[in-house]
Request: fold
Amino acid sequence: MFDSWRDFLELIRWICSTAMGLMMLTFFYDVFLIACGIPKNRKLDSISQGYQVPKTRFAILISARDEEKVIVRLLDSLHNLDYPRELYEVFVIADNCQDRTAAMARAAGAQVYERHDPSKATKGFALSWFFQKTLQGPLQEFDHCVIFDADNLVDKDFLKIMDRHVQSGSRLLVGFRDSTNPGANAIAGANALFWYFQSRFMHQARGRLGLSLTSVSGTGFSFDLDLIRDQGWHTQSLTEDVEFTMQMILRGVKGVYVRQAVFYDEQVTGFKQMMRQRLRWSVGTIQTLRLYGPALWRRSLKVDWRILDSFWFLARIPVMLVATIFYFIVLLIKLTDPLFVPGMLIFDVLGPVLGYLGTVALMAYLVKSEKRSLKTFSAGILAFPILGMVWGGVQIAALFFSDVSWQPIYHGQEVEISSNYD
Reply:
């Protein structure tokens, strides 16, 4: 098939160049999004800052499993919202709980629904079960549903600002995720930066470009209940948030990022916990790609940039795997080349070093632009590029998993919200 070994190597080089070229396009697209995410979205900001008489009736939903340590903190923050109390109600799904989550939520004033089905122990199944029971009953009187995780805290203006965007016509909204413990250690700080990065350079950037958000990020999002009123909630993957977002995108519903609607999230501090969490997210994203990738790709062929952007958000993981494999093949070819000299590797070494320094600088800029303390985030800033590579490796590894089991995440850090700021 090949006239010589050199012909074979040339073919490999061509394939490698094609794969790396695709990754370079991805890199430049990411840089483009970062540039678009720097300026504020004045149109959306003006809606957030404008005054409207509150009208939207919100059902606030929390799916909690063994969260007795943190559930009351969240419920207290929800009861103290600056929003008419008659316009919102709090519902808690006590999902396969073995502790006092249900009792403590009831004592704190929430409507509690207890679910026991260990064979379907994911948040997506819990949401489907809850909506099947309530959409034609208690939820009939509500307009929007806001979903939070049990370890969240909510700024008092959250619903007030969301209401303004609902009244302006938005049907799917995502708030700004801040962190309660970014200074706990490098892992917590890097994870907090991850959400800042997503909010600023993915959500805000796409909003300025007229694109939909590619993920509602699991918590702190609100959606029009009429979107699921007839058919209910139906997700199959481990990342019900990404899957729900893709369902909405295919239906023409655009997610909107609301920077001024702030809530707080507790970040994991242990390496093993972080790896389990990231693996679950990555496997869920691959599951969503398998479920919705073909439909998104067919729609993107109609030269719909909005759909293509969503497809690429899911498809970049397998592309990253191919590019990584071929990167090491090219490196091996260089090392086995009779004409190889050590100086030929200068760009292979210099690239990662410049990448690390550039990422550190970007994270420092992000912290200052969000008016947070560099001192608090210093460990996370330095660790972010390294952990980012680890997260990328986890995403690649997720391609070889069909499913992973849920594992509890330890909660209970002391909340020091004010210390995040300069």
